[in-house]
Design brief:
D-Maltodextrin-Binding Protein, domain 2; six-stranded mixed β-sheet; Alpha-Beta Plaits; alpha/beta; 278 residues
Length: 278
């Protein structure tokens, strides 16, 4: 099974992809490219990071999932994240002038960087593995934030281990498949992810009426957030995760009721909930 992920080899996304039994990981340069590869049939599915316990949702993933109606979420995986300070060779962190990584680890380690490397400038990279690759071809005063697997793949040195600001750091990934693909298991607890927006969102009580469709039917919302609609400032697309599958009458009726208030409702997926792995 070909499983797409944000590349190159050695990213947290690849680690998530490898959790899929029988996975043949296939790297792509960006998250939109990864999701597009599913839509185009280049891969069977993809492991896509959707939210982090420290930094919240991955906006580009949400925006792309909404834009690509050819794909759907068919599962999820929560991956514990260990971030390490990585360099070409062992060095004193006080000598590091530049730290490079994906924006998410840079934010997850902001406190550590202020305490241990206040002299270092931070620069974003397309992925954690790409950051490690850059370090291996750069000068001695450069370091990366990334996973152990990337350090091992590119023969780099781990200068300091587990440098994220919170030891409970974890990222939730979703399995993205082509639209119409059935979830592998619908017998256990389910989750439904959807997005919605409406031209009446500037009217008092509009959002309350939307959310009441779930509340009045006893459907619990585990997450709600907004993203810019990218048309007119002040208007937003809302993203909701609710407990229960779309086959559950209460969830199905709530989604139907929601459509009466909205210009657009998009079900991103109805899929099994998965426990955190060790």
């Amino acid at each position: 099974m070909r499983v797409g992920h944000l590349g190159p080899a050695g990213t947290y996304s690849e680690e998530a992809a490898l959790r899929r039994q029988g996975a043949e990981p296939v790297a792509f340069p960006t998250l939109p490219d990864t999701i597009a590869a599913v839509a185009d049939g280049q891969v069977d599915l993809a492991a896509v990071p959707i939210e982090n316990s420290l930094e919240g949702s991955v906006g580009i993933a949400l925006d792309t999932l909404v834009a690509r109606e050819e794909v759907t979420i068919t599962g999820e995986l929560t991956l514990p994240i260990s971030v390490h300070l990585i360099a070409r060779e062992m060095l004193d962190p006080a000598t590091v002038a530049l730290v490079v990584s994906h924006p998410q680890p840079l934010a997850q380690c902001a406190g550590y960087l202020r305490r241990r490397l206040p002299q270092a400038r931070t620069v974003p990279a397309s992925s954690t593995a790409e950051a490690v690759r850059q370090v291996m071809t750069a000068g001695e005063r450069m370091a990366a934030l990334g996973p152990r697997r990337a350090a091992e793949l590119y023969a780099a040195a781990i200068v300091e281990e587990d440098v994220a600001d919170d030891p409970g750091n974890a990222t939730r990934f979703v399995w993205v498949s082509r639209a119409g693909t059935a979830s592998p298991d619908t017998d256990g607890p389910m989750r439904t992810s959807l997005s919605f927006w409406g031209q009446g969102d500037d009217k008092p009580g509009w959002l309350v009426r939307c959310l009441s469709e779930f509340a009045f039917r006893g459907v619990n919302l585990s997450k709600i957030e907004s993203r810019p609609l990218r048309s007119t400032i002040g208007h937003y697309r809302f993203f909701v995760d609710c407990e229960g599958g779309l086959a559950t009458p209460a969830v199905s009726e709530a989604v139907t009721g929601l459509r009466a208030h909205c210009t657009d409702v998009r079900v991103l997926g109805s899929y099994p909930r998965e426990r955190q792995v060790d």
